[in-house]
Each structure stands twice: as C-alpha cells, then as structure tokens.
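**Fold tokens**
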Amino acid sequence: MIIQKLLAPSNNLKSLYIKELDELKRWKDAIDECNANITFPISLNKGDIISFETYINAFPIEKWYSYTKAKNVQIVIRTSEKVNIQVYNSTGVYERDSNNRFSGKRKIDTDIKCIEYDEYKEYTINLKEKNLSGVIYPIIEAMTDCVLLGGEYTSGTPEGASKCRICYIVSYNRDANTTRSNINAIINNPLYDGEHIVVCDMTGELSSDVFIDNSHECSKIIQIPTSKNPGDSYNAAISYINSEAGEEYTHGIVVDSTVLVDEIILDRLVSFISLLDDVRSDMIIQGDLIKDNYLLDSSGYIIKDNKPDVRYNNFDLREPSDFIISSTCEEIDFFKFGVLCLPLKCFKAFNQDLRTNVELYCYLHNDNLKVTNLNGFFGRLCNKESRRIIWDYYYKYRDYYIAIVDSEFELDKTEYRLFVEKEVKTQRKKGNIEAAFAIIEAANDFLNGPEGLDDEYCLEEINERLIYLSGRFNDSVTGRKNVIRDRIELRKNYDKLCLKIDHSYDMIMEKWTEHKRKVDNEREQQ
C-alpha cells in the first residue's frame, strides 16, 4: 500500500511557488508550473548522487509507528539500471538554508531486494532497525548512466485499512476552475476506488459532465440545501455522511470548496487516516476566510491584486486561523518564529485529542515537532460557543515553547489569575521548572500588552484580553521578547525586573503596580 509518494528532489519548491508570484495572475498557474517540474523520470549520469533529504520527501516514520497500523514501512525505488541506495535517519531539525537539510542524521541498516522487470528494476528497501524516531529518507548513487523512474514509501500491511469517504462541498458559487481542480485532485488520490467520493452541491449548478473527468467514476452529486449561515456547509455534509454512509465508512474527510486542495498533501491525509489504529471522527478541512477574488499562495497568505493581504477579517493570516493545506508549508513564517494557530475544528477532528491533532498537522507538513506533557492546559477555559475558539496548548519545537491561541478569545481576569497560580504550583511540584518559568513569562509578556500599544495601556484592559503565551526563544531566533525589549523603555525596564522575581503571579502584579507608580511619579517630576 502506497503511503507517501516521492517527489523529484532536484527542484526548489520555494522558487517555483514563490519567486515569480508577483508575475503570476493566478496561484493555479504556480501549481501547474510546479507540478510540471517535480515529476519523474530523471536522467542520471554515472556517479551522480541524488538525495531525497528534502522537507517534502522525508518520511515521518515515528508518527506512523505511533498512530497507524503501518508497522513495517518500506521504500520502493524504480530505475532503468542498477543503483546504490542508502537510507538515512534523522531525529534533528530541518534546516531550510543548509545543503545538509536535516541535523543529527545517520545511516541505518537496510535489507535491499531488487526485482528486474523487462523495462525497469524495482528496489524494495526494508528497514532492519526497529523503533526508529524522527524521519527517514533515501540517497541514490547511479552506478551507470540511468533513469530514475520514481518511488514511494509503502506499507506491507494493507489489511485492516479503514474506508475513508471524502465529501467535497461546493458552496457560494465558487470558481469553476478551482472546483474542477479540487475534484480531480480528490479522485486522483492513490486510495480512490470510485466509491468514496461524494460531491455536495449547495449551488445547484454542477453537473458531472462539466466538473468531473469522464475517465473516473464518481458517485453522484448530492444536492444539499443552502444554509443561511455559510459556516454550516460542512455540518450539512457531515450530516449526510452520518445518515447515508453507515458503519461501512469509519473515517471521513470534508473539504470545503473555499480551499484549493493540494493533491500531494491530500494523498498523505487519506493514507494516514485510513490506517489509524482506532475509529475516530471526521477531519474537517475548511477555509471560510478565503472569499471570492482572493487567492492563496503556497505559504498560506491571502493574495489580492497579486500582493499579500495579511490583514483580513480581523485575523492575521501569517498565523493562519484556518487549516490551509499545502505541500510547501516549510515556508510559513510561523514555524520560524514559534507561533502556530490552528482552528478548533482541527482539534475536534479526532475526538478532541489535542496531541493527536498537533502530531497529525506536523506529519502532514513533515515537521519534527515534539509535544510536551503540558497537554490540555487551557481546555477548561475555552468558551464553548461555535465561533472560532482555539485551545491554548504548549508544545516544544527546538528550544522554545509554542502556544496555539485564538486571536479573538477573551478571558476573565479572576479565572486567569487563579489558573496561573495553580499551574505554576503544579509544574514546580512536578519539577518542571522550565515549564513553570514559561507560564510566568507568558504572564509577563501578557502584561506588556500586544505589539504597537504604548506604556499607557492599562492593567485592567490587559487582563481582559487574549492570553498570549510567548515561549522561551532560542538565541538564534529573533523572539518576541527580544523585540519588546527594544521597543519601549518602560517595557525594557519591566522585563528586567520580571526576570528577577519569584515564580508567583501575585508578585508580578505587585511589582507591576509598584513600577507603574514609580514611572508615573518620575513623569510628574519631569
């Protein structure tokens, strides 16, 4: 069973998607250009070495071992002549600007079998080592002039795979080209067998002759009522799956037509969900923020008039508030600066299992994020209304903590104070001093106020606003605290003060009040 296809690694996905973006009229043009340049076959001369040590080609083996039935992953390589193949494992981080992309890599023992067919040779690489963590990837050396035909990561345990139904919703009279592209991407995924695609049409304008490639057999288009609330389109689709599919389908993927689907990531999503160890609920992929005449580039930015429009509907799309799937997510800035925002829909996708969803997101983008034991800190504090609420959640990436927050969430001052006191005491008792300090730093950063506000920002208003959990940033990364230090003299002095105080929220409040009084007195004297 194919669980992840290899892409030709010699191309720079960033340059193909991003470099000429201003000259492209539509994002779809960039996709077509990229797809035309990342396909096999690749001609190799004797002695050529081609490495799949790339962000999109490395395979997150630990996540598959942890969550799916695929316990015996193999690598399959097809060539025209004999080649030398080595497999490497890395538990380190991905360096975007380095020739040696993964740190902490090592060669691992393999058992390689080659079957010679008339037109090509197929190598099956079995991993001798067990309990591998991190990622794996192959490196190929041409022994003679040859052609590299392609390859994939596979699992030899297809039995027990769950049936996964994909429901594609057409809503709001979306662009016909986007709709056709999405449906074809869904139909062309490697697990598609002609029975698991449902198209729910809210517009009443679709027909299989127009939108669906006649070479594929797709289930009929289902007409569903247009909802007065645009956000209810996925609810209507889920209701259809639950009422019509029955127990035959253990998993479902709902894709809104507001999202331009990336075929590469969709392949991985379907494979991953189909092999989950236990039956879980549906995965929702939705993009309500993507309105008519707005396009997405590969980094998740909204593009209008060929320029990024990073402020839209009161959301900062550099910290995406919707689950935008793309095969080039290594370019998204939030991984560099340590802030990641995901919608509650993604967390609810698998029975509100936060750890699983964070790991799933990281798997889809081949990131080597490690989740800490601070699971579910803020779950009880979330407003349970249907608007976008995100559960605050710590996890560790490299050497700093990251928080998942909601840009609209407001928290009661008293409840926040009690929470901070309780969690600091809990973490200190457990010996998690670093975690306790991260919480205190969060309160410190919170009191400083959001970017752009001056020192007159009052304490009461601060306590009524969103908790912004800043992390402990690596010195090599320009973190938010370093930016704050250089912004306003008052904040810089207060930051130094907070570094010296004990791990107590009460003391933070007292020191802040005292410092504020001193600053006010100094101003009056001046």
In short: The two ends are 75 Å apart (CA to CA).
